[in-house]
Amino acid sequence: VAKLCVCDLLVAQCDTNCCCDPDCSTAEFSLFTTCSVPVVTGDSRLCSQKAAVYSLDVEANPPEMRFKLIDQVNPSVFCIHAANYKQALSFSSPEMPTSENFDQLLKQFGSAAFSAEPDSWDVNTDAQNPSDANETYRYEYGVPVQTVDAFLRLPSPVVSSWCSDANPAGFLVNQVTKCTRSVSVENCGDIQAVSMLFYINSSILAVPKSSQMVNITVQSITVQSPNGTRTLLNGNDVLRLPEIVEELCINIVLGVSYHITYTDAGEIIEAAAAFVLGAINKEALSIQQSFAISFAQANTEPVPLSGNPGYVIGLPVRAGYRPQGYPFPVDAVFAALNTNKLSQLTLLQSTSSQDCLAAQGARTPVLFGYNMVSGCTLRITAAMKCQPLAQTLLDLLKGQSFPEYVASFGNSQAQDVLDWVPITHLRLSEQANNEGIYNLFQSSCQIPVSLEIEVKWTKYGSLVNPQARIVNVTAKITTTTLKQLPSGRERTIPVMSSVVFTDVSSPAVPGYKAWPTINVKLPFDFFFPFV
């Protein structure tokens, strides 16, 4: 490692701030501000190895470069003790083309995209291994969805933007791809990838290495005109193949969306495809195709997630409420999430008019990690009654159905009661703020003027891949005293709502020995399925 220098890019010249560059002189080192590569190591997966450490001594005059060689210990419990397979430490030399192997290399690497399909994807259902007869198979996450001839293909760009049909669709892996395909009117009928038949003619295996097959049905057919207008056809049982009509090639496949239904046993029971068909003229040399695949479990209602497991910044904070009859039965807790389309924490949405009465009903979801402020103005007249006005403002700030709980994780399920954090509600009067008195709509006319939501979250799990977890949510309503206005007088007050996210993760304190610690890094799924 003392001879390695990854920042040495210029030949026979000194690279700026490259402390390991042997071409740099002492005078040039004195002009450095920092070491761009302070530590040089070999394979980071080794349990123990030498590390070259570079630094600048800014107290010296002129500043000098310092170098030392140290023994670096990998804190991970999963590391390589000895690298005894020397071939894996460097790239293998490519096979050089010769007159004997040129044709074979051209066949293997000559196309725009190339791949070697494993033999396990080619399933021969007629000749099964007798030892596998009693073994139960099921699809697992990421395993290619198998068909009778190979696997379900989801074309995608590989090396360039051109479509490659060698991309397998992985089980439970939702994908959306776009790629370009070369076409022409003269041979549009001979190109398989622009025909509907290419995407539905191969049946899917219900489970790997089985004889049970699931046919791909046509869910819908949408025809797109040259100007972009789309029309949904009524009949889906008609197979529309490409054909030339008046110098146009019609029924060209522009998009395919697969929808796969599976059971909790990992068995595919239904497959459907939705097509978008279009037309090309003689001037067209290529088309852009879009492909998508989604999976849904049978007999379940899909619930949008905001992370898996931790929250993803920018996705809505999931929320719910406790149904009547809680805590019996426990399984019914948060069941409303499955049917409630508004299972999100929302905030008052500002309007261009800034009129509170006109903004009623306009809500915007609270997005994890995004601090937001919104508001409006309310014009109060002497004819307005206190209690109806207070209730109107409360509904404006909190919405019609303010949730009672917030999901601690982005993938928290409705039946997992301990995965939901109750929202703490506080009410504070502006007049009693200095005294710290919480006021609950006393006899005087108190109207709410602000809603402040604070979401506290922490980093959870592995240090390598921490997950965002919500641990506390507080909703504070601030009220103010509304004095009776003289007849004919008006008053305008601002109404505000806000949300702030606070990271309450406990940082590591150097030298703190009160609690025993071990500095290791485990795989993210080390404790699966336990938390």
Automatic annotation (TrEMBL):
Question: What InterPro entries does the annotation carry?
Answer: TCTN1-3, TCTN1-3_dom, TCTN1-3_N
Q: GO biological process annotations for this chain's record?
A: cilium assembly; protein localization to ciliary transition zone
Q: Specify the Tectonic-1-3 N-terminal domain's residue ranges.
A: 2-102
Give a Gene Ontology cellular component term annotated to this protein: MKS complex
Keyword Protein biosynthesis listed: no
- Where in the numbering of this chain does the Tectonic-1-3 domain appear? 138-297, 307-501
Keyword Signal assigned to the entry: answer is yes
Keywords from the UniProt entry: Cilium biogenesis/degradation, Glycoprotein, Signal
The entry assigns this protein to a family as follows: Belongs to the tectonic family.
What does the subunit comment say? Answer: Part of the tectonic-like complex (also named B9 complex).
What is this protein's record name? Tectonic-1
Question: What species does this protein belong to?
Answer: Dryobates pubescens
